[in-house]
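Re: that chain you flagged

S.,

Sorry for the slow reply, it's been a week of failed gels. I finally had a moment to sit down with the sequence you sent. For the record, here it is as I used it:
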Amino acid sequence: MFDFDFEFYSPWFLLLFLLFIPLLIKDAATQKKKGIKVPTIKNMGESGGIKVVMFLLKISKYIILSALIIAMARPRTFTISQDRDDTKGIDIMLSVDVSLSMLAKDLTPDRLIALKDIAIKFVQKRPNDRIGLVTYSGEAFTKVPVTSDHQVVIDELQNLNPLELQPGTAIGEGLSVAVNHLKNSKAKSKIVILMTDGVNTIENAMPPALAAELAKNNNIKVYAIGIGTNGYALMPTQTDIFGDLVFTETEVKIDEPVLKEVAQMTGGRYFRATSNSSLEEVYDEINQLEKSDVKVSKLFNYQEYFKIFLWIALGMLFLDALLRWVFYKILS
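Prediction finished late last night. Pasting the structure tokens below so you have them in one place:
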């Protein structure tokens, strides 16, 4: 990750610009009192070239001093890069069920929005780990491969849409796609946080047990979370003539035996979240269970610009000397 910025290494030298105040006052008083004396060459008085030369001679000292002051203040830009050892961190894939049942209102305001908010907080608490995102319903899709750019993950979490994939719930597909992205990782620890609120409904999809076997063979731990209250909840079951979802009281069914088996096979754990607070507690517990010891250091790369202003001062000094020599040569 890179940040770009600008600074003066010695900004206190910029206070020398205050010296311009008495210089400007002195020049103004001198011009008002004496005017500009030019030797008596009548035709030169109206010459545009002479006026330009006189103006340059008048401001040259300010340009030279300004360039020298800025050079002493050392203007520079810098980039900040993060140096991290990924072999000591944790790579995390969030695998999120986005089937229509995630719009059930047993969590506030519904399961999907509650999950978004809590998952974003979880991401923000893991600044030193790489995190990715997979969404699934009847099919699975990689939203974000594991990355240290957490803002990308947060943006995609905020935009989760239960209508973008085929209907259904393919838990095994959601897990296997996440495993596929983690299997070649060199991280100290690799985990998948698998979230669902239903049962596996796609018969010809990857079986959850087989996906769990793949995770186990690649040293990937799975934390499974079942989302939903015990009993009944308002769920979208159909649409009305206007295309709006119709919610009806429906029994909450979560395939807990399958989720427990997946977690147990991979050395992870199964959690049940029946409310916003319990879902947040689940994420907090996972955050505590998976501690990262990666150390991130910042590297500063500077680009200095003081030489440019030294050349400006030197060039202007040469031009000033040349103009004075030529100008007074003509007038002598």
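What I noticed first: The chain has nine helices and eleven strands.

Talk soon,
D.
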